[in-house]
Amino acid sequence: MAGHGVMELFYEGLVPGKSVIDCVMARRILDRDSFAAFRRWRVAMDASGNILGAMNSLPHKALMDAPDDPLLDEAKMRPIAALLELEEIPAGSYYVNIIAVYPQHRRSGAGAALMRDAENLARLKNFSRMSLCTFEDDPGLMGFYRGQGFETQARRAIEPHPAVAMSGHFVLMTRELQ
């Protein structure tokens, strides 16, 4: 749902007999040392307990210090080299790595609630700035993040790849916390 094909780029066909979601769960979410480890996720739910969306966020340093997945070789990483370059820039920030809300729950306030949770986590950890990277050519994402107070700081061209559904640019956005 999130990433416009980036997880498919990494994990489609990587482990025989395993789906992309199986690989993401095993190699990212259930790996305690991963930047996307389960403990770093927050879930938005409605009053009935239905999941509306989720977010992975963490201190930027934890993102940079996390071990690489050894199965993701240079060929798998090359198409997102520009994204990786942007992710190195916002040192000292609290990084929103992934935020995803099911399409039928967008504009329900779930995404804003998740972002408020990220801001609260950032403040609890004494960060004065938040950061994230996204796709410039997705007007819904850009509008959402701008509405949350984020501003574009840098952009890099996306290398075309059949698995990645977006073209144009990756963008780094930041928000100062008052």
Describe the structure.
The protein has 178 residues and is α+β, with helices and mostly antiparallel strands. It has a single domain, classed as Aminopeptidase (3-Layer(aba) Sandwich), CATH 3.40.630.30. Helix content is 32%, strand content 25%. It has helices at 6-11, 20-29, 60-65, 74-77, 81-87, 110-124, 139-147, and strands at 41-45, 51-59, 94-101, 129-135, 151-157, 169-176. The protein has a six-stranded mixed β-sheet with strand order 1-2-3-4-6-5. The longest helix is centred in the middle third of the chain and has 15 residues, at 110-124. The protein is globular, with a radius of gyration of 16 Å. The model has no long low-confidence stretch (mean pLDDT 92).
Count helical runs: 7
Strand content: 15-25%
Tally of separate domains: 1
CATH superfamily: Gcn5-related N-acetyltransferase (GNAT)
CATH architecture grouping: 3-Layer(aba) Sandwich
CATH topology: Aminopeptidase
Calculate the terminal CA-CA distance, rounded to whole Å.
31 Å
Q: Ranges with pLDDT <50 over ≥5 residues?
A: none
Secondary structural class: alpha+beta
Return Rg in Å: 16 Å
Helices and strands, in N-to-C order? HHEEHHHEHEHEE
CATH classification, class level: Alpha Beta
**In which range does the helix fraction lie?**
25-40%
The number of E-state strands comes to 6
